[in-house]
Write a structure and sequence with these properties.
Structural class: mainly beta
Shape: elongated
Low-confidence stretches: 1-31
Number of strands: 9
Number of domains: 1
Order of helices and strands: HEEEEEEEEE
Largest sheet: 6 strands, mixed
Radius of gyration: 15 Å
Length: about 140
């Protein structure tokens, strides 16, 4: 299934069409970025959901050119009605087209997950993708 998604995205990229798994929204078009970021959860049969404990989120980095590599960081933005702080997973190298972060969610509600890609840790963020994750008791 994942290969089908990648093939479809790569086929549509020259047309300037964007897509992603798990409700990801790309902030840039394919014309001005070398990668597409998509989110990958272990069970895509239902909307992503987690209770108060650790949860891994994977950002798939789909290269539009060969050898895009780069680094990804993720930020989990706390629900507006909570007193929790945002959670940050620092830049890490893309390995085999993916970067993974583990978050320990501290509040119930809808968390916004933001993945940011850059060519290196010294470069400006070039691609941003966002999705939401519902955290329950």
């Amino acid at each position: 299934m994942r290969r089908m998604v990648v093939a479809t995205l790569l086929a549509l990229a020259p047309l300037g069409l964007m897509g992603g798994t798990a409700g990801a929204q790309a902030a840039h078009s394919a014309a001005d970025a070398p990668v597409i970021l998509a989110f990958d959860f272990s069970d895509n049969s239902q909307p992503a959901s987690v209770s108060h404990n650790g949860f891994n989120i994977t950002a798939d980095v789909l290269s539009l050119t060969s050898g895009a590599g780069g680094v990804v960081r993720m930020v989990a933005i706390a629900p507006a009605d909570s007193t929790s702080s945002n959670l940050v997973c620092g830049f890490q190298a893309v390995r085999q087209g993916q970067a993974e972060c583990a978050f320990n969610f501290t509040a119930t509600g809808v968390w916004r997950i933001r993945a940011e890609w850059a060519p290196t840790t010294h470069d400006a963020v070039a691609v941003v993708s966002q999705t939401v994750l519902r955290v329950s008791n």
